[in-house]
Amino acid sequence: MKDKSLELSLCAGHRDRLRQKFLDGELAKYEVLELVLSYAIPRKDVRPIARMLYHKFGGMFPILCAPIEDLEKIPGLGHNTAIFIKAIQKIMLDGYKSEAEEKPMFHNREQFTNYAKLLLGGRPTEEMHVLYLDKNLHLLKDELHSKGTIDCTVLYDKEIVRNALDMDTKFIALIHNHPIPGLSFSEADVELTKQLINALLNVRIQFYDHFLVSGGIMYSMKDDFLLK
Fold first, then answer.
1. What is the 3-state secondary structure (H, E, C) of the chain?
2. Cβ of 131: how many Cβ atoms within 10 Å?
3. Distant-in-sequence, close-in-space partners of 203: CB < 8 Å, separation ≥ 6
4. Which of 45, 100, 118, 185 counts the most CB atoms within 10 A of its CB?
5. Strand 206-214 to strand 171-178: parallel, antiparallel, or no bridges (unpaired)?
6. Position 89 confidence tier, pLDDT thresholds 50, 70, 90
7. For residue range 162-173, what is the model confidence (pLDDT) as tens digits?
């Protein structure tokens, strides 16, 4: 009993030091995660868990985007803590989305990249999202348009045009993911995008860009000169 009390006391002292280091801006990346986990697992040394998460997933974005069932495989990290991590992901996504409704969606490229990674990183199959934007590039809606397989998804241009007209959309952008790391845009991705561009031209809606999240990297069709 005395040993247990000593262990809890040492743990509390360590967490006090973590909190002070956080306030001083001196925490290492894994220590930030350790501090966060300390609130979800209050009576246990979470340093080994934080280090295992970084070793397994390789960084904060992959940790936040990992499926709950993968998080639960980390020794000492239970279902409730996995939900806690996913809740942080949701809070961050909602924050980015709220700002995109008030400011131009792409005014800060790094911020948009983080949004895209949080949205689609770690997904086991391809997802296509449509961003409906007003004349000032403020976000009207981020719509999950379709879910595919591990290496393909679909795009319904008539449905996108109909939705865009209903929302008085002025710009359209696309984001999708490739679950297999290292794969950039496929020929099918480019062809589907060109079909959508032609459909949008008929109703005078501009196409902004098509973005891809793959292996922790965000690609742009416009930047890769894949769109004329």
1. CHHHHHHHHHHHHHHHHHHHHHHCCCCCHHHHHHHHHHHHCCCCCCHHHHHHHHHHHCCHHHHHHCCHHHHCCCCCCCHHHHHHHHHHHHHHHHHHHHHHHHCCCCCCHHHHHHHHHHHHCCCCCCEEEEEEECCCCCEEEEEEEEECCCCCCCCCHHHHHHHHHHCCCCEEEEEEEECCCCCCCCHHHHHHHHHHHHHHHCCCCEEEEEEEEECCEEEECCCCCCCC
2. 24
3. 161, 164, 165
4. 100
5. parallel
6. very high
7. 999 999 999 999
| pTM assigned to the model | 0.84
Query: Considering only CA atoms, which of 99, 174, 169 is closest in space to residue 132?
Result: 169
Q: Is the pLDDT of residue 10 over 70?
A: no
- Bin 59: left if φ > 0, else alpha if -120 < ψ < 50, else beta: left
Rounded to an integer, what distance in angstroms lies between the CA atom of residue 127 and that of residue 186? 14
Question: Distance between terminal CA atoms of the chain?
Answer: 72
Distance CA 209, CA 18 (A): 42
pLDDT digits (tens, 9 = 90+) for 150-164: 888 899 999 999 999
Mean pLDDT of the residues in the chain: 90
Residues 6 or more apart whose CB falls under 8 angstroms from that of 3 comprise none
